[in-house]
Amino acid sequence: MLNRSPSPPTGRSRARSACLTALAALGLILATWYGGSASTANEPQITKIKAAPQGAQVVRVAEFLAECPYSHRLPDDPIVFPGLPGASHMHSFFGSHVTNAHTDVTDLLGSSSTCNPAIDSSSYWVPTMYRNDQPVEPTGTTFYYLGEGVRDDVIQRIRPFPQGLRIVAGNAKATGVDDPTSVARWSCLHHGEVNPSKDFVTCPAGSMLESYLDFPQCWNGKDLDSADHKSHMAYPVNGACPASHPVPVPKLRQVLRYPVSGSTQGLRLASGPGYTMHGDFFNAWPENELARRVTNCINAIVKCGADGNPS
């Protein structure tokens, strides 16, 4: 029998062999890139994850909050009419249970409170809302402490409110929606298609009427109050506090949600139309707890919950 030499490879077989060689080489390269050096069967497999693209936006929010449900109702105002019970229009109070016309910071400190956290014994109040002369109290009552409205370098210099500081925002005597002293706005919960307004808005059935009010966040560094209850505070200008009020403090944002929808007929505040909405704040936070929240949440630009920890 004749011995036959192996047949020379055909063009097709040569191509197939080259393809297999290329695939093997590619596999080796990929193994080197993603697996590093060879690992044993007992070693965990490492998956490398690409870093976020440079310049990706990170959401940062400087915030902590207090949830302070309705406490009581009185025709008192210990900031505007101190020591004069019944001298004010009707107010709805949130936070401290003890607030009345005679209240001072000593009364508030350590008093029982509706707030979460309970350590916030500050007092917050607004003119009572009425519908057909029946009082309507908000069922959502959140007080946000924010670092927004100023530059990042100013946020890092925000200081806690001094104990006993009193602030009034808005104007009970505003003359209309064009009055610049009217700073509250009304909107509808979960219905952004309803344009906000300084006066009441008509909300769809099942929604709620919301009031937003931002307090000034620049303090003159000296006075806990002033004759008009406003001059010791100011709003920032171009992202910074004016020279007359050089100390940045947290921006207090009052958000109230009322169980009201439909027609605004018969709706009023104790102070008048919706554009007279205003708010009062009497600070009685424990100094150490307020300072911790300002440092860890506001200065660090971190979103925190009612407990003052990142949420």
Number of helices: 4
Q: How helical, in percent, are the residues?
A: 10-25%
Rg over C-alpha atoms, rounded to the nearest angstrom:
31 Å
- Compute the average pLDDT: 86
The fraction of residues in strands falls at 15-25%
Poorly predicted parts: 1-59
Strand order of the largest sheet: 1-7-14-10-9
The helix-strand sequence is: HEEEHEEEEHEEEEEEEEEH
Instruction: Describe the global form.
Output: globular
The largest sheet is: 5 strands, antiparallel
InterPro entries: DUF1996 (IPR018535)
Protein name: DUF1996 domain-containing protein
Organism: Streptomyces olivaceoviridis (Streptomyces corchorusii)
Pfam families: DUF1996 (PF09362)
What's the topology here?
Elements: H1 11-35, E1 63-67, E2 70-74, E3 91-95, H2 105-108, E4 123-127, E5 129-131, E6 134-136, E7 140-146, H3 152-155, E8 166-170, E9 185-188, E10 209-214, E11 218-219, E12 233-234, E13 247-248, E14 251-258, E15 267-269, E16 278-282, H4 287-299
Antiparallel strand pairs: 1-7, 2-3, 3-4, 4-16, 5-6, 5-15, 7-14, 8-16, 9-10, 10-14, 11-12, 11-13
